[in-house]
Amino acid sequence: MTSAEEDFYRIFLRLDEGVLLLRANGEIDLANEAFMRWFGLTNEVVRQPFGSVLGEAAINELAAAVWREETPAPREILVQQEGVKRWLIVRASRLGAGEGARAVLLFQDVTAQRTLEEVGIDFVANVSHELRTPVSILTGYIENLADFPKMPRSEQVEIFGIMQEHALRLKALLNDLLTLACFESRSDVLDLAELDLRQFLRQLAKDWQPSLASKEMAFVLEIDDGVSTIRVDRFRFEQVMHNLFDNAFKYTPLEGQIRVRVAGFADHVEISVEDNGAGIPEADLPHIFERFYRVDKARSRRYGGTGLGLSIVKHIVTLHGGTVRAESTLQMSTRIIISLPRA
Ligand code: ADP
C-alpha cells in the first residue's frame, strides 16, 4: 500500500458509519471497526463467507438485490449486543464490475433518533392522559351544577372543593410541563452566581416551617465546614431543593424528620435530602427520575404530585454539570443526593 492508500484505509476503518464490502461469491472483502463492533464480531472476518458470519436475512436480501443489478431501497434493522439495542439503516450499492465488483453496504446508526421519537410519543400520550383526568372531572361537575340549579348549598360547597383541587392539579401540571419545555427547547440559559449555601438552606427551612409544624415534623441541617458557597442558578437551584423537600414532606408521615446534609469534596459538593417516610421499593428506584413515573399513582395524586418533580430535578442538576441519585429502604427512609461540581 502507498502511504496515501494507508491513510485512506485508516480513515475507512474509523468511519462513524459501519461499512462492509462483499465479493460476488458472498465472501467478506473488508469490514470496518463500527461494523465489527455493532455486530459483536471480534475475530478476523475477511474471506469468511458472509452468511456464516452474520445470519441477518435483511442484509442477505440487500446484497442479493445488488448482484441482480437492482438499487434496493434502504432497510432498517434492529441489532442487539449484550442487551444494547441499536437501530441501523442499511444502504446497499454496487461498486465496480467484473471480477473486482463489490457489494458495498453502509450502516448508519439511528438509535438516538429512534429513542427520541419513542420518548416523544410516550410523552404526548402521558401528557394527554394526565390532562384528561382533571379536565373530564371538571366538565362533569360543571354539567352537574348547571343541571341542578337548586342543589343545596352544602353539596355545592363540596363540589367546588373538588373542582378547586382538580383545577390546582391542572395548574401544577401546566407549570411543570412549561418548566420541562423550557429545558428541552434549550432556550433556558443558566444564570450562574455564587450562592451562600448555609444562608440559602436556613431560608428554605424557614419557608417550610409552617408546613413542617402542621405535621409535627422535625428538620435537621448539617453542613460541612469546608463548604460555604456554591456556583448555581439560584432560581433553578431553589426549584430543585423545593421539589426534593416537597417529596420528603409529602411521603413522610406525621412526626417524621427531614434531614438536609451538605458534604464537601475536592471537586464537588453533595447535597442530600433524607426523610424517614414511606421509602421506595428497590425495583422502582431506577425509574423515579423518569417523567410521569410514580410508585403509587393514587398516593402521588392525593398529595398533588404530577410525577414530573424528580425529572425536573434531574434536568436542572444535569444542566449544572452534576448528577443525582437515590437511596431508599422501604418503610424506613429515602435519600436523594445531588452532586454539583465546585467549579
Ligand atoms: P410526584 O409529583 O409524584 O411526587 P416525582 O417525580 O417528584 O413525582 O417523584 C416520582 C415518584 O417517586 C413519586 O411519585 C413517589 O412515588 C416517589 N418518591 C419521590 N420522592 C420520594 C420520597 N421522598 N419518599 C417516597 N417516595 C418518593
Are any ligands bound, and if so which? Answer: adenosine-5'-diphosphate
Mean pLDDT: 89
CA-to-CA gap between the ends? Answer: 50 Å
CATH topology of the largest domain: Heat Shock Protein 90
Provide a quick synopsis of the model:
The protein is an alpha+beta fold and 343 residues long. Helix content is 45%, strand content 25%.
Could you list some keywords that capture this structure?
Heat Shock Protein 90; Helix Hairpins; 5-stranded mixed β-sheet; alpha+beta; 10 helices; 343 residues; Beta-Lactamase; elongated; 12 strands; binds adenosine-5'-diphosphate
Description of the structure:
- The protein has 343 residues and is of the alpha+beta class.
- The protein has three domains: 107 residues, PAS domain (Beta-Lactamase, 2-Layer Sandwich); 79 residues, Helix Hairpins (Orthogonal Bundle); 155 residues, Histidine kinase-like ATPase, C-terminal domain (Heat Shock Protein 90, 2-Layer Sandwich), CATH 3.30.565.
- The protein is built from ten helices and twelve strands.
- The radius of gyration is 29 Å and the shape is elongated.
- Bound molecules: adenosine-5'-diphosphate.
- The site of adenosine-5'-diphosphate (ADP) has 23 residues, from helix 8 and helix 10.
